[in-house]
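Issue: copy button drops trailing tokens. Both records pasted manually instead:
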Amino acid sequence: MILKRRKKVSLVLGGGGARGITHIGVIQWLEEQGYEIDEIVGCSIGALVGGAYATNRLQELADWMKTLTRAQVFKLMDFSNPRYGLLKGERVLNTLHEVFDDVNIEDLALTYTAVATDLENEQEVVFREGSIYAAIRASIAIPGVFTGVSVENRFLVDGGVLNPLPLNHVSRKRNLVVAVNLDGMPIKDKSTTPPHFTARTLLMESYYAMRRRLSALMLELHEPDYTICVPHNAAEIWEFHRSAELIDVGYELARTVIKSHS
């Protein structure tokens, strides 16, 4: 089909650690092509990148991310009581405050939704109003990594726990829906050697398989117009020092997936 320029887009940004920097490249390509993103739905890193875009600070976020080295990423880690999470996350978000200001979601120029998880009740929690900082902080609270957030007697963690690709929260149904799935199938090693699973790799591969299945189910139930799949082994969770490369990956994936089918 032929798409008209300035076509309005609902952009769904999944969770997945540093792989989520590819979201920046996807947004850059869409804007260059003249698409109008007037809705963003995100969880975890998707909520963060989407929040930067919604507050007109995406370029500042990209520029900062590109400067990060391995050592600087480590310095951003503020260790906490291991009972509640390895990291507090405050140092990261305080740094991000220097990149974009906190505003109320309802005052944004576009529709913004961040998704977190109420762990005790096993329910999705949707933020469509109030502090965007608070919404992002809850949405990125990876269990065992960042400390969770208590909100109105609920203990909130990363939205990707229940829904790593929150397509079900798109509200602008007439928009072109573009989903960025950070749990794409891995790039296979071409070696003929059978895979060797250590205890750690077995645990991680099982976790990734579970996430891929959750994302696949969401794609089946709420089929978007375009799905940009980022291989889950494109980057490890903390490889933010590769941000420049990952932005380019997102840009090229968007161009390949959308332009080739337009």
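Record 2 (pasted manually too):
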Amino acid sequence: MNVNMHIDINKIVGLIVTVISLIGAIIGAVQGDTGSSSLITNDSSQSGGTNSQPAPQPAPKPAPKPAPKPEVRTPEQVRASLMQQLNEFRASQGVAPVSESAELNAIAQKWANHEAELGEFEHSSFSCWTYTDCPHEHIAVVGDPTEAIDAWKASTDGHREGMYYTTSVAVGHGFAKYTAGPYKGMWFVVQFWHDHNER
């Protein structure tokens, strides 16, 4: 009787140990699954969630290119442009071209320098220079020397007609930037003409 009782107690203890081991294994498995789920959730919140990422920033705009420097033109280039525009206008009126006069260029330039320095806008007072009769003269205040031709072409007080006189044979131009007066920074342009009956 005592032996059988001892055997039964051993079986019971063995079953209890087995059950405890099974319960421990089950608890460990459950804890392991929960930990994995948390890890995945954390990964998802860090890499897959749209609200957790900063808003995309616009690409930086390229730095603006510096403005091109204005073309530097020599007096010879300016006079060549004035002569070309003048003779193109004369051709459009059916009139022969005129030649450029170095003497008239020098006289016109002297007067342009004089007016720009004083800040004045007056016709020449050089007593007709070396000519026996005074040639006709055009003057203009413009932003660029080559704009003078267009200003004279648009004139309604004789400048337009003066550029296509059939008796004109030579012309000279002078131009200088104002350093004083109300036109400071602008250009004074003068145009002197030599006609057949003025030499």
